[in-house]
């Protein structure tokens, strides 16, 4: 690769915090974002799962009323996180035609869509808002970020389920390499904690049923794990060429050095138990980074806490790293944040960059008895990464057989 790509700004909202650094602080402290849902619809529909990891702020509490009313919650979270990241990057001066947006979601404007359907059924077509379609469309976040920051190079959207925003970060890396932009706003957002998704994921036996103990429900790698916990929020990275960043004196968090995207073509919801596709994505990322598997010092695992998914990821990584996989410090951060679906990859990219910055792998909370089928090096305490060069990967796998991996180096 001819250009070095850096991260100069970060922003994030999740159940752990309203800023990127607040998320990181609480992640290192072992805080859980999962809480009992205080909504009348939980009891109204007799939902079998009564908790989730809701974002710590609601859009209407942060944005001006006129903005909040014109955005689905997913786009609103994207805007809030992007403003934080942009300010953190020093509000780069860049020509609009050299500023791009690579954004992602797994579902899009779910609340807007289903609220509009309720309005149509109960009050008729004249009461459906004219902005319904621009609010519900999956590319709404990318479009609104393009408008907010006058990004005219391009505004692209990835929708590949839970792999979406890892793929958007990789896309930003490639677009910067190709010279399509000098600066890119990359990331993902999701706000899909809704009765229909809770009911559907519950019917699929995908969610944890620990209604009496939400904080300890998500437990990746533990032998008694019983499913994932839904999360919500957004995460944004400001990415640019090193040349551009240094010319304006920007601080640099770390380097994006490669990525890989593959498909399992195995099952619409389940990943390949042999891990071939996921392993190829890791291998692609390392090859693009010009690195060997022996150089990897940290892994942020997809690890959602499902009975099937966690061991399948271990099998995939063992194909790449062999027995060394048992020695690499691994973090499964969804134990704390819940699963942000299309927003999770960008959030975990930020965690991976901060892990390299601070030379510490964040803890995996709720690790009770380890599952012998998932012998990752997980710890309930932060794991030091040591001195010297650091190379980390962050994995995301999604419904539809999507596999996405991004590789990072420290400064």
Structure description:
The protein is α/β, with parallel strands linked by helices and 411 residues long. A hairpin with a 3-residue loop joins strand 13 and strand 14. The chain has helices at residues 20-28, 40-44, 65-68, 73-88, 110-123, 132-136, 140-149, 164-177, 195-203, 242-247, 276-288, 309-321, 334-337, 344-358; strands at residues 5-13, 35-36, 51-52, 99-104, 154-158, 183-190, 233-241, 254-263, 298-300, 330-331, 360-361, 383-384, 391-398, 402-409. Helix 4 packs parallel to helix 7 and helix 8 (164-177) crosses helix 14.
In short:
With 411 residues, the chain is of the alpha/beta class. The protein has helices spanning 20-28, 40-44, 65-68, 73-88, 110-123, 132-136, 140-149, 164-177, 195-203, 242-247, 276-288, 309-321, 334-337, 344-358; strands at residues 5-13, 35-36, 51-52, 99-104, 154-158, 183-190, 233-241, 254-263, 298-300, 330-331, 360-361, 383-384, 391-398, 402-409.
């Amino acid at each position: 690769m001819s250009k070095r790509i850096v991260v100069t700004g970060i922003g994030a909202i999740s159940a752990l915090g309203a800023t990127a650094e607040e998320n990181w602080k609480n992640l290192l402290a072992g805080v859980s974002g999962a809480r009992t849902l205080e909504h009348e619809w939980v009891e109204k529909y007799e939902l079998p799962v009564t908790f989730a990891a809701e974002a710590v702020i609601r859009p209407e509490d942060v944005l001006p009323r006129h903005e909040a009313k014109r955005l689905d919650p997913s786009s609103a979270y994207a805007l809030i996180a992007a403003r934080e990241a942009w300010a953190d990057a020093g509000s780069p001066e860049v020509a609009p035609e050299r500023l791009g947006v690579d954004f992602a979601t797994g579902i899009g404007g779910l609340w807007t869509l289903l609220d509009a359907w309720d309005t149509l059924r109960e009050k008729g077509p004249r009461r459906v808002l004219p902005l319904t379609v621009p609010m519900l469309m999956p590319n709404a976040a990318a479009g609104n970020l393009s408008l907010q920051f006058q990004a005219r190079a391009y505004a692209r959207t990835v929708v590949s389920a839970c792999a979406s925003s890892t793929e958007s970060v990789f896309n930003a890396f490639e677009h910067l390499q190709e010279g399509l932009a000098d600066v890119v706003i990359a990331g993902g957002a999701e706000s899909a904690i809704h009765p229909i998704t809770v009911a559907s994921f519950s019917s699929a036996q995908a969610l944890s049923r620990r209604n009496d103990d939400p904080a300890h429900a998500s437990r990746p790698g533990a032998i008694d794990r019983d499913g994932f916990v839904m999360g919500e929020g957004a995460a944004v990275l400001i990415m640019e060429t090193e040349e551009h960043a240094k010319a304006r004196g920007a601080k640099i968090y770390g380097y994006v050095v490669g990525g890989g995207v593959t498909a399992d073509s195995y099952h619409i919801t389940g990943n390949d138990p042999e891990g071939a596709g996921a392993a190829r994505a890791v291998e692609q990322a390392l090859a693009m980074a010009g690195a060997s598997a022996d150089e990897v010092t940290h892994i942020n695992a997809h690890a959602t806490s499902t009975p099937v998914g966690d061991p399948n990821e271990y099998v995939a990584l063992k194909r790449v790293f062999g027995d060394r996989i048992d020695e690499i410090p691994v973090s499964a951060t969804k134990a704390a944040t819940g699963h942000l679906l299309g927003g999770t990859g960008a959030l975990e990219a930020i965690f991976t960059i901060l892990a390299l910055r601070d030379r510490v792998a964040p803890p995996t909370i709720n690790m009770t008895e380890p599952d012998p089928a998932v012998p990752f090096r997980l710890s309930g305490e932060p794991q030091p990464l040591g001195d010297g060069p650091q190379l980390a990967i962050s994995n995301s796998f999604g419904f539809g057989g999507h596999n996405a991996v991004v590789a990072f180096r420290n400064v």
